[in-house]
Design brief:
Layout: H1 2-21, H2 26-49, H3 51-62, H4 65-86, H5 91-101, H6 105-138, H7 141-146, E1 157-160, E2 169-172, H8 189-213, H9 248-252, H10 262-267, H11 277-293, H12 305-330, H13 336-364
Antiparallel strand pairs: 1-2
Helix pairs in contact: 1-2, 2-8, 3-8, 6-8, 6-11, 8-11, 8-13, 11-12, 11-13
């Protein structure tokens, strides 16, 4: 079933590329193939980034908001009960301590509102551009421009046997698309991109399942009585005697947006708290940087500026998810349990992708003749 679907998908890609670039222009086929890859990847990443908005649309379309709010409140109180029984319910005293001794709410609110998407986009663009840079160096543009038939497959592009209705068609070597090594360090930049992207996408969609089936009212809404959504319904729980959380963005604002903005009220899911996507994405960024850069280089001297720059970036990537977890808890947007479950979701996603790569590398080790059937430079 999987091979049949893969074959049909490759045939569709072939028809698109040949239809746009023409059956004989190999150089244009390579350009169109890379452009189609860029479009599909950007579309996948953009759709994954909108899982919060998508969950809000599904809930608003299929569920009465009153029932949605009651379910979110029930799950939130269950989390509070669990944290109190396990000694983890320290969000309220932590916020009071921060307000008394640190403050700086404008910074922390802006950090919550802007750093989360900005840093994730930067990392996604970095690994995507890195992958395309590697692919562009693998294309033999001179040979494709000449249109000569090579005696042996070039490093990355090889002719595919023509169909009855089309001419020969240059496509990428399957080695640049499939998993041939289980070790991350031995993978090509294209394979490393697919590995890291797959972990991020899987973890984001697993959190989307949590948003759908386990809506959770964040701490900031537990004592709120007068916050209304775009339809005029009360979003908070009005538990003023039980909880003393402060909605720091509502009280102090941020430099980017506010909960009262109409676009935020319309698009945002106020109960998308479990698990914390802030934690998932921040930990993924740290994991990505560590896996790409690796440990400190033993060849660099302590006097070298590059040594200290690498050390700063490495330790900064480790500190980033820690600061993010502190931010989401102290601003009362998440419980500490949301962050812990977010780390578990990322670990599960990494394990699933890792096991898949191990399985593919072992299965492909039994292949006797390599194939050159992948249609696009992917």
């Amino acid at each position: 079933m999987k091979r049949r679907f893969s074959f049909l998908f490759r045939q569709l890609r072939r028809k698109i590329v040949v239809g746009v670039a023409g059956p004989a222009n190999h150089q244009r086929q390579a350009v169109v193939g890379l452009a189609l890859l860029a479009l599909t990847e950007v579309a996948l990443l953009a759709l994954t980034f909108c899982t919060n908005f998508l969950s809000a649309y599904i809930h608003n379309t299929l569920e009465i908001f009153h029932d949605f709010r009651l379910r979110a409140l029930h799950n939130a109180l269950a989390i509070v009960s669990f944290e109190r029984s396990s000694g983890l319910f320290f969000e309220q005293p932590l916020q009071r301590w921060h307000d008394a001794y640190l403050g700086g709410w404008s910074f922390w609110n802006t950090y919550y509102a802007g750093v989360h998407p900005a840093v994730t986009v930067i990392f996604l663009v970095f690994i995507l551009v890195r992958m395309f840079g590697w692919k562009l160096t693998r294309v033999n543009w001179k040979r494709l421009n000449e249109g000569a038939q090579p005696l042996s497959p070039p490093p990355d592009y090889a002719p595919v046997a023509p169909e009855p209705t089309s001419s020969t068609y240059y496509a990428s070597d399957a080695a640049s698309a499939i998993v041939t090594r289980a070790s991350f360090a031995d993978m090509s930049p294209a394979q490393q991109y697919r590995f890291l992207r797959s972990v991020w996408v899987l973890s984001a969609w697993l959190s989307f399942i949590g948003f759908l089936f386990v809506p959770t009212m964040p701490p900031r809404l537990l004592p709120v009585c007068d916050f209304l959504n775009a339809a005029g319904a009360n979003v908070g729980a009005c538990l003023t005697t039980e909880f003393s959380f402060v909605d720091t963005i509502g009280a102090h604002g941020s430099l980017l947006w506010d909960w009262n903005d109409e676009s935020v009220k319309t698009l945002n899911n106020p109960y998308a708290a479990f698990p914390s996507q802030h934690t998932i994405f921040a930990a993924w960024c740290a994991m990505t940087w560590i896996m790409l850069v690796g440990p400190a280089s033993s060849t660099l001297s302590l006097r070298s500026p590059r040594y200290w720059l690498r050390a700063l970036l490495r330790w900064g990537s480790i500190a980033y998810p820690m600061v993010t977890v502190y931010c989401i808890v102290v601003t009362a947007n998440h419980y500490i349990s949301d962050a812990l479950v977010g780390l578990i979701v990322l670990a599960i996603s990494y394990a699933c992708v890792r096991l898949y790569y191990l399985y593919q590398s072992r299965r492909q080790s039994y292949d006797i003749v390599p194939t050159f059937t992948t249609m696009l430079p992917y």
